[in-house]
Amino acid sequence: MKRMWAAVVAAGLVALSGCSIGGEPEGKPSPTTTPTLAEPVELDYFATLTVDDGAGHALVTDWVEEKLRAIDSTGEELWSIDAYINDEGGGSEAYSAGDLVIVNDYSGTVTAYTWEDGEEAWSFDIPGPDDACHEQMAFGSRSTGLGNRLGEDDLLLLEYSGMRMDGHCTPTSEAGNAVLFALDPSTGVEAWPSLSIDDDGRTFGGSLIHLAPDRKNAVMSWKSGEGSMVTRISLDTGRHATVPITKARAIDDSGVEHFDVFPTSDETTLTYLFGAEDPDDPMSQAFSRAAELTLPAGLKETDSATLAADSGPNAATMEDATDPMCSTDFTFTPEGRAACLQLQLFASAVKYQGSDGSPEGWFADAPEMAFDTVLYSGAPRTVPFDSRGKAAVLAPGPDGGVVAIDAATGKTAWNAGDYRSTTPWGGEGVLPDVGLVVLTDNKKTSFYDSDAGRLVEEHKADQYDELTSGYSTILVAGEKSTTMWAVVDR
């Protein structure tokens, strides 16, 4: 196997001959180390990857012992802390920022530890009284970075993901009920003042904001009394503009109050998702109805701590859409390209629906088994990757096997395998430093060349093994043990 991995790396170096690597000028000596996929190692517990740092560290969740374990590329444990695990099977969220790993365990406190020894570097207590209307334990997290790795200019965002408490409760502060905090990941200090909604404001639960394809802005949907609002937030400053869309929503005949809005690469064009999902009927997720919501250009931003409408009631317009539009969160390739993938059920066909951030999406043929792999809650996360300079997403092929779909066009970038899956995928991942995408499916874990789809290696897996991934670590968890692959410099 070592010879095969060496051949893969050598082929990549041949392909890159004459070009600069990693930004080095042409003619400069090559680095003395080369990213290489190490031999797999076994962990004697069921684990999923929470985050890795690309420097030989990974934070994994041990679900049986309810621990977060920091390990190195050999599987050796460096330190551990107690893990948060909820009744729905969710766990602690974590992010890597330089030599720190930051953990949100839904306790109301976010804590940064040093990767090497687990020493606490900083902590941030979400403010508010004990009887806060927006309780501190209901703040989820996300980053403005690529996946769970934070770069120098990226922020850690804490967003209110709950529903306001009924009865008597107390606002977070004089500004109202807090909904969003932005932290500098190196210090834990607020990058800009938190944002709040007043006593008449309500959120819908779940994800509060959705990042734009360029990750510079985000949009938020909420209610102010009987009014429906959309707020656009500049993530570098926290300045924001709020537009009432109550009149524009007149075409929404779903009969429900909740709705969602997603950004596109055009800041004036948003995708409005009708709130028709029935939580008691999973199949309802296959029927997404969307509209095109248009905001005025040149919205005036404010730095007010409390969100409020900044424009007139007729500023936004909306019309039903029959063309494909992306109505879910974008995910990002290791090089920062945006992609989304959804499933749409029609009377006589199943289709993929997606986009690279453009307001205009695409349809592509999909097999019925894609419902279990792409659609349902708990399905493996879509992990886009860079393929020949474009964003691509893996999906079950309409005629079997696996296809890489161009996120910009919906066309097949490559097709691998002619087998037919009988069970949902166990997960997918990408290892950009060695040019591989990884898939657990059909009782095996397969490593494919990300540019051409060539099968490089495969390993036996059990039917219900689960794959989780960072950018340098792959975990495939079985019932009692876990196999780990790590990218190391040699």
UniProtKB/TrEMBL annotation:
Gene3D superfamilies: YVTN repeat-like/Quinoprotein amine dehydrogenase
Keyword Cytoplasm: no
Pfam families the UniProt entry points to: PQQ_2
UniProt keywords, alphabetically: Signal
Domain Pyrrolo-quinoline quinone repeat: 66-200
SUPFAM superfamilies: Quinoprotein alcohol dehydrogenase-like
Cleavable signal peptide: 1-22
PANTHER family: CELL SURFACE PROTEIN, OUTER MEMBRANE PROTEIN ASSEMBLY FACTOR BAMB
Name of the molecule in the record: Pyrrolo-quinoline quinone repeat domain-containing protein
